[in-house]
Amino acid sequence: MTQPEVTLVVVPRERFSYTQQSLESIYENTDYPFELVYVDVCTPKHIQQYLQEKSQEKNFKLVRTPHYVSPNQARNVGLRHVTTQYVVFIDNDVVVKRGWLTKLVECAEETGAAVVGPLTCLGQPEHQVIHNAGGENRIKIKEVDGKPQRCIRQKTYLTGEHVVNVPDELKRVQCEYVEFHCMLVRTEIFDGTVQIDEGMLATREHIDFCLMVLEAGGTIYCERDSVITTDTLGISKNQKGLMALTGSIQIPDFEWSDLPYFMLRWNDAWDLASLTHLRGKWNLYEDKYFHKRYKGLGGRRREILIKPLVRRLTFGKGSPWLEKILSSLETRFNHYYYKRYIQKLPQAKQAQAAEMLQSVEVLQSAMV
Description:
Blueprint: E1 6-11, H1 19-29, E2 35-40, H2 45-58, E3 61-64, H3 71-79, E4 86-91, E5 95-96, H4 100-111, E6 115-122, E7 130-132, E8 135-144, E9 147-156, E10 173-175, E11 182-186, H5 205-215, E12 220-230, H6 237-246, H7 259-265, H8 268-281, H9 288-295, H10 299-313, H11 320-344, H12 347-367
Parallel strand pairs: 1-2, 1-4, 2-3, 6-12
Antiparallel strand pairs: 4-11, 5-12, 6-7, 6-11, 8-9, 10-12
Helix pairs in contact: 8-12, 10-11, 11-12
GO molecular function: transferase activity
Keywords: Transferase
Domain Glycosyltransferase 2-like: 14-118
C-alpha cells in the first residue's frame, strides 16, 4: 500500500531568529517522507541566505513574498504549491519530537479526520509543559435581554500541565479545535466551503478554521502521542517559579531583526480586525469573550518586549507603574509603525488598513 503524501508548509509566526533551529529539528526528527514548502516573508538577509542554501541542499521549495504578510496569507501562499493528500501547516518557531509526523498521519488514516493536531508544548525545556491538547470550540445560543444570541465558547484541555504528571491523559482524543502552530489537514477539505480566511489577520485563526471544518462535517482530533513545542520566547509557569526561587532574570532570545515583523504581526489594528471579522462572519454576540480580548490588545508585545525590560530596569523586582508607562509609549509607537506600514501598501489597500487603525484608536479611547 502506498504511503499517503504529505507536504509541510512552514510559515512565520512572529519572528525569524529561530528559523535554523526549527528547520533542523524538522529534518532531524521526522521519520515520515514529506515535501516541504517554506514561505519566506521578507526574512533578514542572513536568514534569507541560510534558507536559500538549505533549500538547495534539502531540495525544498522556497517561496519569498515581496513584503510582510500575515500568517494566514502566508499559509495560502504555501497552499498553492501543495498537490499531496495532506498538508501540515507549521510555524517557523516550532521544534518537533521524533515520530511526530508519523503519528499525525496514522491518526488521520485510522479515524478519517479532516484535521489532526499534536500535543503542543510551550517554552523551554522543550516538550515538557502543555500549551494545548485539543479543546472545545462551539457556538451556543444564549438568552440576552430576552433575545437569543450566538456566543462562542472555548475550553482548552490540559493547559499548563507538565507532561510527566498526566501520562494517562496523553491519548488520542476527538475534539473541536487544535491550533495552527502545527496542524495536519486533509487537502480535499479545501474543495468545499473551508478555506484559510485572510480576514483573520492576527488572532483566532485556528478557531475560525476549525469552526468551518466542523460546519462542513469534518472531524478534528488531537493526537497526543505526537509532540511539538512552540513559543520558546514565552516564559512558562515552571520557569516563572524558578525565577522566583533563584532571583534570576530570564530575557527572551529575541533579536533586533525580529522586531519589525513582530510589531506588525501583533499590531493592535490586525488584532481588532480579526476579532471583528470573526464576530461578523459567524454572527456572534459581542459578549465578555470579545471584551476580554479587546482589553488584551497588545498583550503579546507587552509579554515579550515590555515586561522583560521592566524586570531588567528594576533588577527583577517589577514595577506596575513603570510597565503601564512603557506600555502606553509602546502602543503609540506601534500605531506609528503601522501607519508607516500602510504607506508601503498598494493604494487600493491603504484606506481599509487606515480604517482598521482608526477603529482601534476609537476603542482604546473609549476604554480609558
